[in-house]
Amino acid sequence: MLTSNDFMRLGILNDGDEVKVPKNKLAKLMYYLDCVFSILDCPGLDFYRNYKNYHNLTTRQTNEVLVMCARFEPSLMKNYHLFIQDKDLLPMGFGNHFYDIEDNRVPYSVRRNVLIGGRDFKVLQVMACNQAWIDENYNEPMALFASAWCCFCCDQKCRDNCCKCCNKSCKCCWITICILFWIFIALLIYFAIN
User: How many whole angstroms separate alpha carbon 148 and alpha carbon 75?
Assistant: First the structure.
């Protein structure tokens, strides 16, 4: 794990602005993706970053956000040392902070490129964060959505083992999960081709 001394030695410079994220679980997941896509060069994925307009998303788009969050989950980002949990790197009162890598030497634990879902991404920055930030912007919202997947057939939430709007059993939830799986596979293929 990199420490604050490693950052000073390797020439990783401080970067970042304070943002205000709406108090909504979907907005928090989109903010999480915005942070991930600030770390990685991900052209064409700006739709997932627009957390201030989370309320404009359809059910299908919400599910796409969930699939993208699952694809770039925190443990993967930590394994690549793109998320670094070090309280000494965080400014007072912040849960996350970005650092640009401007040194020509490549530190052994921070790669210049990472392979995720069959696609090679250029690493632009690293992010220092604490567990509370990960819990607030990823773990808690994902847990909420996992317990209430949106139903494709009616744009409503499944409640009490059935969709109240269409009185279908939770088979529609399984259909939703299958559709999400195939969306995920399609995204993998798309990123592998491009």
Answer: 23
